[in-house]
## 1
Amino acid sequence: MSWDNNNDNGPWGRGPSGGGNFDNNDLDKLLKNLKSRFGSFSPKSPDGKVGKKNWLLIALIGLAIWGATGIYRVQPDEQGIVLRFGEYIRSTPDGLHYHLPFPIETVIKPKVTRENQVEVGIRTSNQASIGRGTVGRDVPEESLMLTGDENIVDVDFSVQWVISDAADYLFNIENQESTVKAVAESAMREIIGNSNLEQILTQGRESNEQAVRDLMQSTLDEYGAGILIRRVQLQKVDPPAAVIDAFRDVQAARADQERLRNEAEAYSNRIIPAARGEAAQLMEAAEAYKNSVIADAEGQASRFNSIYEEYRKAPEVTRGRMYLETIERVYGGMDKIIIDQSGGSSSVVPYLPLDQLQKRQDDGETQ
C-alpha cells in the first residue's frame, strides 16, 4: 500500500506536526529494527515449532502482567470505589490497594475533598472567585421568586458542597450537580415564600442562608445523595430591575415614617412623665390644702364648743370676756384716741403709747 507524499494523513490519522517528512522508507526501517531487537526472544524451538514450556512461560508472564493491573493507588483527596462486574463491593481510603484485574473488578476514584459549587440565578466566568457582590450574567428564570407577602424579589446565590459518601454519591442519584442545583432552587423558593419582603431585604439575610442550607441537607439526606452542603451564600437580594426605583422610594418613605415615629415616641416619653409629675404635685398640694382646711374647721368648732360650755356655766362673764377679746382684736393694731365724755363734758384723756415707746427702744438697741 502506498500513500500520497503530498498528504499529511496516514493510515493511523494525521502524521507528525512537522509535515510530510516521515515517508515509507523510514517506517520500514523502524519495523526492521524492532524485529532484529526482539527476534531472539521468539518462543520457537530449534526445529521451528513452539514448545509447551514456552507456551506455559508465556501464559504465566501474561497472567502476572494481568494480575498486576489490579494494583491501584488512591490519592489523599480521593476515595476508592471498587466494582465487581459493575456492582459496588467496597470503599478504600487513600494509599496503595489491590482489586481483581479487569474485567472482574474495576475502581472509581472520585474527589471527595474538593469543594464543588453551583450557582442559581447568576452565571460567572470564574466560579472560584465567587463572593458577595460578584458580577455575572443574570438568569431571571431562576432568580425571580415570590415572597410570602406577594412581592417579587430577585435572588442570586451560590451553594458550596462536597462528597461525604462516594458510594451513595455515585449510585443513589443521577446527574449529581443538576440535582444539587434543583434542590437549592427549590429550597430557596420555599424559604423566600415563607418570608415577607422587608425581612428578606434587611435583617433576614443570614437566617435565610442557614434555613436554605438546613432544608437542602435534609432533602439530600432523604435522597441518600452522599453530599454535604458546606454553605449557602446569597450574592444579590433586590427587587426586580423594573421596579427597583419605585421600591427605593417606598423604602425611603418607610425610613421617614420610622424616624417620625421614633421622634414622636421620644417626645411622648419626655412629656408624659413631666405631666404626670405635675399632676402628682397638684394632687399633693390639693390634699395638703384639704387637710389644712379640715384641721382649721375642726379647731374652730372645738374652740366654739369650749366657749359654749363656759357660756352655759357663766353667761354674763363669758359674754363680757368675748366682748373684750373682740375689742382687743379689732383695736389692737390701730392708732387710738380716747375721749372721756363722763361728767357731761368731753375731754381728751392723756394716753401713753406704750407700743410706740417699746418700738423706739427696740430700734435704738438695734442701732
## 2
Amino acid sequence: MKKIIILLLVTSLGSVSDAQSVLTLKRGIELGLEKNYEIQIVRNQQQILDNDVTIGNAGYLPTLDLSTGYSGTINNTDQRKPTGETVSNDGVHNQTLNAGVNLNWTIFDGFNIQANHSRLKELKLRGELNTRLTVEDFISQFTTAYYNYIKQTISLKNLKYAVLLSKERVRIVEARHNIGTASMLELQQARVDYNTDNSKLIKQHEVLYTLRTRLNEMIVSDNIDNKLTLADTLISFNPLLNKEEILDKALRINTELLLAQKEGRLSQLNLRMLQSENYPYLKVNAGYGYTQNVYETGTYDREKRLGFNYGVTLGFNLFDGFNRRRKQKNAKLEIENKQLEYQQTELAVRADFANMWMAYLNNMKLEGQERDNLKTARANFDIAMDRYKLGDLAGIEIREAQNSLLEAEERLVQSQYDTKLCEISLMLISGQIVSYVE
C-alpha cells in the first residue's frame, strides 16, 4: 500500500513539474532554431545551393541523349520523265523511323566552365551566410522579446504593488471619514487614484499577453496561448564588454560584411565568365543511330541505316555588334560598385558600433543612478506613509510620493532593459550573438 502511495506521489509531482516547466533563454532559442518556419525555409534554400555545386551543373561533363522518332508524309505527286511520259501518284505515304544515342561535349569555352564552377561554390557560401544572418536575426529578436517579457513582468509586479498601496490609502481614508476626520472629497480622490492604478494593471496584463503570444509564435508552440514561465526574473547584462575586441570581431566576422565580400567575389566571377567570349570554343559530338525509311514510290521501297557519326566544332565569334565589349565594361563597373558597397557597409558597421557602444556605457551609468534613485524614493515613500497614517500629510502628497516610487521602479527596469538591448546589438554587430545559445 505504501509503495502505491509513493508511486502516486511521484507521478503527481512529475505531472506538476511538466505543467510548470520553465523556459530558459537557451531552450527558447533552440526551439526556435529547430521549428521556426522562416529558418526552415532559408535552410532549404541553402540546401538547394549546396545541391547545385556539381561538375555537371558547371558544364565539365558531356550530355548524352537517347531519342527516337517517327514521321510520315502523304502527298499527291506528278513526275515527268525526259521522254515526256508523266507518272502521277495520289496519296503516296512515305514513312521515317529513327532512334539513336547522341553525345555532346564542350571541351573548351574560354574558361567559362571553370568560372561557373567557382561561381556555384561562392553561391553556396553566400547561402550559408544568408542562413547565418537569418539565424542571428532570430536570436536577436527572440532575446529581445524574452527580456522584454521579463521587463513587462516586473512592471506588472510594480503595478500590483501600486494597487495595494492605493487600496491601503482608501482603507485609511475611509476609516478617517467614518470618524469625521477626512472629507468626502479626499475619499473620492483616493478611490479615483485606486481605480486609475487598477486600469493600468489591466492594460499591463494585455501587454504581457501579447508578448507571451509573440514568444509562443517564435518557438512555434502547438498552443499559441501557452502560459510561459521564464527561468529569469531579472534583467542581467554583461558590464565587462571589451570595446577593442568587439570592434575587431565586427570588422572580421560581421555577417553583413562577409556577405558584401561574397557579392564582390561573385561580380569578379561574372566578369571572368563574360571574358570567356574573348576565346574560341571547342566542342565534340558523337552519335550512334538507326534510321528506316519506307517509300511507296521510287526505285526502293525500304531503306535502313545503322551507324556511327561524329564531329568536331571549333568556333570563334568575330563580331557581335560590340555587345561583348559593352557587357564586360558593365561588369567592371559592377565590380567597382560592389567594392563601394563593401566600404559603405563597413562604414555603417563602424557607425552602428560607435553609437551602440556609447549607448551601452551611458545606460550602465544610468542604471547605477536609477538604483540610487529607487532607494531614495522608497525611503521617501516610507516616511510619507508614516506621516500619512498619523494624519500629518495630505492625500495629494502621499499620491506624489507613491507615483515617484513607481516611476523610479520603472526607470530602473527600463535602464536595465536598454542596457541589455545595447549588449544584444553589440553581440549581433560583432558576430557573437550565438553566444546566447552556448
